Automatic annotation (TrEMBL):
Name recorded for this polypeptide: Beta-hexosaminidase
CDD domains: GH20_HexA_HexB-like
Every Beta-hexosaminidase eukaryotic type N-terminal domain range: 92-217
EC identifiers of the protein: 3.2.1.52
Pfam family, one: Glyco_hydro_20
Length: 598
């Protein structure tokens, strides 16, 4: 027998809220753990503190969980109002480095004027950035100042102008480019004819970060139908904690259309992430055009799932306009079976297809050709060469490679080292800094080029060992920052610390930052954004904000409401960010409710 609990809240004859807790037959007769576990994360943050304090015991777990459900419904009945912001929290994401605020509410003119000053005031990046954010801020407003009928004049607004001062005219986007800014928002006074907001930054990219923060201060008020800024005046002095704040996107396991990649880049800018690590190719498919070796993209899934060099250039340009680097990856020598669809000689044999054939000069000539063509597209100084999960059985079992190993007096492990170092030499010759997955460092750290950046993923402790040997490091511990691990909750993503185990300041400075990784085996256009967000935002704040500012003792109270708010901001901006507290990432809501509480 199946059944459930119905709850409906009404106000007069108007239905306000309806809830149905439905049980399967098994759950109805004896509450099953899956139901309890799925609903608990949603319930517990909504329950009164007295209910949360109820003790659990193994024998009474199911009955007590059922009681919690009933009490939660009772709590809904007693609730007189919906979600309200906690005034003690600052609803900016990521949290700025330094800021002060007040208790005023300011109105913003929908015809907000823009004044760009300084050496970088004429930057196209800045001007287009303002226009983008103006559309976001005034999405619900006509763009015409309201008319005060009672006085027969146009309404007077507190903020009528946004001044942006950019001190440098350089638009070069490289690792460590300045992203700091100051933002001042205040009501006009006797010394000023109009109220204004002022952003000042050394670079145009710092100004973009300031524009994002300003846009988050602006909120549409549905009662007055105007844009308002709460808790003014604001003074914000902000800068990133780490120079490298990344998201890895895998377009080999599932092809992602250009527009989808652009949407992801746009959403990254909202969280102040600044590196898209583009894992373009892998063993499953080779979708990128390489003019020097035009048969390589024969390895694409279909002729419609490809990226032309013009597509790639467009993505790089689109990202730069938002202050985001594109770090491309060509993973060698493993993960490369798709290469042989166009050039079968790259395979050790027709039946044993990876790693790439280490014994042939053609293999390295082709890698050099790929990197030469890609260097014309990707200006970022870092280039990812992979080097992970290299299983050398094909080398030791294929006769001609086995003979080559013997002639070279190499073991399979020696050949792995030889391949990685040769690929590094090629990248460095094209003025790139090589990035490699941590297996290369774990296997032969003393042989790696000293310019190598070690990319951690397997577990903790790698960055401490890498920086101790003088290497730079990128943190992506799979236990916390692999977004395809759907069972990793937001709080574990948030709690991961790139500098864990590193106490020496000079060694801490060798940690460039970190990135969350969106591997694509189970993510395509239908669900990629829900898988990325909002958990990527948790990592984004760790990478931008001061360590002490985001190390709250109780992140459920201090951080969760702010993350709920940011997830809703993403939704309002058209980003399909999933509920924050579901047991598994990207799952839809289990019950009806507010975005700000799910």
């Amino acid at each position: 027998m199946s059944g459930g609990i119905d709850y409906e809240e009404t106000e007069g004859k108007k239905r306000k809220r309806k809830l149905r807790l439905q049980f399967t037959p098994a759950v109805y007769n004896k509450l099953s753990p899956p139901f309890v576990y799925q609903t608990n994360p949603f319930q517990l943050h909504s329950l009164p503190k007295s209910i949360k304090m109820l003790p659990f015991s193994q024998n009474s777990h199911y009955k007590l969980s059922f009681l919690l459900l009933l009490l939660w419904v009772s709590h809904l009945v007693d609730s007189k109002s919906g979600f309200e912001l906690d005034d003690s929290l600052t609803y900016l994401w990521p949290l700025p480095s330094e800021f002060t605020s007040g208790n005023q509410t300011l109105t913003v003119d929908p015809t907000l004027s823009f004044s760009a000053l300084g050496k970088g005031g004429n930057s196209k990046i800045l001007i287009e950035g303002f226009e983008r954010y103006k559309k976001i801020i005034f999405k619900h407003v006509s763009g015409i100042s309201l008319f005060d009928k009672s006085r027969g004049i146009r309404s007077v607004y507190d903020i009528s102008e946004l001044r942006v001062i950019v001190n440098s005219d350089s638009e070069e986007l490289q690792l460590g480019v300045g992203e700091s800014y100051t933002l001042f928002v205040a009501k006009k006074d006797g010394k000023s004819i109009v109220g204004e907001a002022t952003i000042e930054a050394n670079t145009v990219f710092g100004a973009l970060r300031g524009l994002e923060t300003f846009s988050q201060l602006c909120a549409f008020d549905y009662e007055t139908k105007s844009v308002q800024i709460y808790k003014a005046p604001w003074y914000i002095k902000d800068k990133p904690r780490f120079a490298f704040r990344g998201l890895m996107l895998d377009t080999s396991r599932h092809y992602l259309p250009i527009d989808v990649i652009k949407q992801i880049i746009e959403s990254m800018s909202y969280a102040k992430l600044n590196v898209l690590h583009w894992h373009i190719i892998d063993e499953e498919s080779f979708p990128l055009e390489v003019p020097s070796y035009p048969k390589l993209w024969n390895g694409a899934y279909t002729k419609w799932e490809r990226y032309t060099i013009e597509d790639a250039s467009e993505i790089v340009s689109f990202a730069k306009m938002r202050g985001i680097h594109i770090m491309a990856e060509v993973d060698v020598p493993g993960h490369a079976e798709s290469w042989g669809a166009g050039y079968p000689d790259l395979w050790p044999s027709s039946t044993c297809r990876e790693p790439l054939d280490v014994s042939k000069n053609f293999t390295f000539d082709l890698i050099s050709g790929i990197l030469s063509d890609m260097r014309k597209i990707f200006p970022f100084e870092l280039f990812h060469l992979g080097g992970d999960e290299v299983h050398t059985d094909c080398w030791t079992s294929t006769p001609h490679i086995k003979q080559w190993l013997k002639d070279q007096n190499m073991t399979a492990k020696d050949a792995y080292q030889y391949f990685v170092l040769k690929a590094q030499e090629i990248a460095i010759s094209k003025n790139w800094t090589p990035v490699n997955w941590e297996e290369t460092f774990n296997s032969f750290p003393s042989k790696l080029n000293p310019r190598t950046i070690v990319h951690n993923w397997l577990g903790s402790g790698v960055c401490p060992r890498a920086v101790a040997k003088g290497f730079r490091c990128i943190f992506s511990n799979q236990g916390a920052w692999y977004l395809d691990h759907l069972d990793v909750p937001w709080n574990e993503v948030y709690s991961a610390e790139p500098l864990e185990g590193i106490n020496n300041v000079s060694e801490q400075n060798l940690v460039l930052g970190g990135e969350v990784c969106m591997w694509g085996e189970t993510a395509d256009t239908s669900d990629v954004q829900q898988t990325i967000w909002p958990r990527a935002a948790a990592a984004a704040e760790r990478l931008w904000s001061k360590r002490e500012a985001v190390s709250a003792r109780n992140i459920t109270l201090a951080i969760l409401p702010r993350l709920h708010y940011f997830r809703c901001l993403l939704n309002r901006r058209g980003v399909q960010a999933a509920p924050v507290t579901n047991k598994y990432a990207r799952q839809p809501p289990f019950v009806a409710g507010s975005c700000y509480e799910q």
